[in-house]
Amino acid sequence: MVIVKYGGRDGKPLEFADSEDFLVVRTRRRGALATARLSSRALSLTQRMERVASFPGTGVEVLHRRDLDPGEARDARMVLKDESELRFAGRALCDPRSGEPVVYTENLFVKLRDDVPSSLAFEFFGKLRYDLEPVRKLDFAPKSFFFRTPEGSGRAVFDIALELLEMEEVEFAHPEVVRERSYKQAFPPQWHLQSTTLDGNDIDAHAHVVDAWPDSEGEGVVIAVIDDGVDMDHEEFASPNKIVSPRDVTRDRHNASPFFAGDEHGTACAGVACADGNFGASGVAPKARLLPIRLRSALGSIDEAEAFYWAAKFGADVISCSWGPRDGKWWDPADPQHNSVVVLPDSTRLAIDAATDHGRNGRGCVITWAAGNGNESVDNDGYAGYDRVIAVAACNDHETRSVYSDFGDANWCAFPSSDFGHNGHPAPFTPGIWTTDLSGSFGYNPGDSEQGDVEGNYTNAFGGTSSACPGAAGVAALVLARNPSLSWQDVKELLRQSCDQIDQANGNYDAQGHSSWYGYGRLNARAAVDLA
């Protein structure tokens, strides 16, 4: 048990307990534990543990013993202490109130009283019996300093802080005690973002989105959603400066709000991509900004081309398109629509080319496109099949293909979405993807808790490749936030490299790692951000 006092000597003591369940490790090179070269024994032990917290850039991670009994956990500490690439391995502290692991460094924050003359400050510290190394003087408060205790001091830093507090000259002193930052929340029904349990079913079929958030949440990136409009007054698009340059290319106005009854599709798509995550749903890239473009004109219209021009001109980094030619009936292979070929008009193609050639100051906009929901060849679709876009297929909460998802050579990747049970194809665990809906009772969810929330602001059943596409757009935004210098081609290739080959038994991946069902596999946002 150690004690920290915030608020000076009269502050309320905070007690942190030793935990046998958590292990703190720190690599010497400050990289992730997974990049360290460990002995076979150490590697075997860490593989039986679960990473529950990480501090990027420091090489510090907290592991839970998970499959190890207490004796094996103690052995793990001893084994890891002897690893040459690990600088530290030891028990973590935990907050006894929450059970949350906490980590301390060998650093101290110290603030002297304001009436201590500045000329005497370092003289005061020089007289101390502690061997404190000044790191820097802090500017946010007078007479404040950051010190480092000698390496190996360990928990003595807590005692030093308490002793300093007893000195007349000292106003505040405490060790640097840290916890993993609380990033934008993935709400429990959002199984596509992280592992969760819904209706008693453990679902682990996600795209590792929450795992990516410690390093990227889409900051500084703009996602354009071209669709039937976006509820710009929705509570999940209300963060400061969230909405960028809205446009209705169909009605020639600067308002991208839905206009007709039934225009709820774009709001759901935008939520999957970049909802703030403050109230009921988080997007894949919650800190990305949203450029909503309402397009209700016919396929192939000039308005369609104008939408891409507007997006690129007004700063879109990523463009998400969950629309295209009419799908065949996915359950009816005899449907004549399955054989139709739709060519991309030159007007739209040139607008896409301009966005990829000149957008982002010449690095090109990244364009994601829904592969289609007809259980037919995406290669017949001149839109999603165009090689300057990223065709996104859908996979389900069983980690297999969604029964409706289009297939073919043009498929680049897959992202989690809804599914249906059909002719031996297993029914999904969930009704679909939880995301934003038109506020109130006007969208997919009229205000029924079985369809989302009782206010009607969220739906639990959005799906199709329409949902998979903005999910992929969100991953692209995470990548560009991490490395804005990447070209659109770089991002496309990086997404390929980051895919997980799900359903290997039935995915029919070829020698190049491509599957007509999944493209190069299901996107892994954590891997994509690491590659960026």
What fraction strand? 15-25%
What is the structural class?
alpha/beta
**First CA to last CA: what distance?**
41 Å
Overall helicity = 10-25%
* CATH T-level topology of the largest domain: Rossmann fold
Number of domains: 3
- Mean of residue pLDDT values: 91
How many strands appear in the DSSP assignment? Answer: 20
Total DSSP helices: 11
Radius of gyration: 27 Å
Largest sheet: 9 strands, antiparallel
CATH architecture grouping of the largest domain? 3-Layer(aba) Sandwich
Describe, in plain words, how this protein is organized in 3D.
Strand 1 and strand 2 form a beta hairpin. Strands 1, 2, 3, 4, 5, 6, 7, 8 and 9 form a 9-stranded antiparallel sheet that branches. A 7-stranded parallel sheet has the order 13-14-12-15-16-17-18, with helices on both faces. It folds into 3 domains: 101 residues, no CATH class; 60 residues, no CATH class; 293 residues, Peptidase S8/S53 domain (Rossmann fold). About 1% of the residues have low confidence. Helix 6 runs parallel beside helix 9 and helix 9 packs parallel to helix 11. With 532 residues, it is of the alpha/beta class. Helices cover 22% and strands 23% of the residues.
Features:
single chain; elongated; Rossmann fold; 532 residues; 22% helix; 11 helices; 23% strand; alpha/beta
Describe the structure concisely for a colleague.
By secondary structure, this protein is of the alpha/beta class. It contains 11 helices and 20 strands.
